Amino acid sequence: MNTVTVNQTQNTVSVDETTLTVTVTEGQTTSVQIVTEGPQGPPGTGIDLSSAVDDSLVYFHQSSGTLKVDSTTTKLTLVDGGNF
């Protein structure tokens, strides 16, 4: 989060979100350009919660490359006839 602090009340600060500029007026105009940071690394694995039920457990689904949470893998399916 970016912040602008003005310590003197005679100064004015204007923010233009279209051009991404901040204008600080102190008798004369000074412009500062705001630059957005680039990508922060590769995207993480998505988690598909669309079929989640009570007591679902998270598992990795190889063909879709996502983490899933659904009724096929729950605490009950692991304990009652689970595939050990």
Based on the model shown, name its key terms.
84 residues; mainly beta; 3-stranded antiparallel sheet; 3-stranded mixed sheet; 1 helix
List the SSEs and their pairings.
Elements: E1 12-16, E2 21-26, E3 28-33, E4 47-48, E5 56-61, E6 66-74, H1 75-79
Please summarize the sheet with the most strands: 3 strands, antiparallel
Distance between the termini: 48 Å
Element order, helices and strands?
EEEEEEH
Give start-end ranges of low-pLDDT stretches.
none
Number of DSSP strands? 6
Radius of gyration: 26 Å
What portion of the residues fall into strands of 2 or more residues?
A: 35-45%
What is the averaged pLDDT score?
77
Helical fraction: under 10%
Structural class: mainly beta
Number of helices: 1
- Gross morphology: rod-shaped
Strands of the widest sheet, in order across it, are: 1-2-3
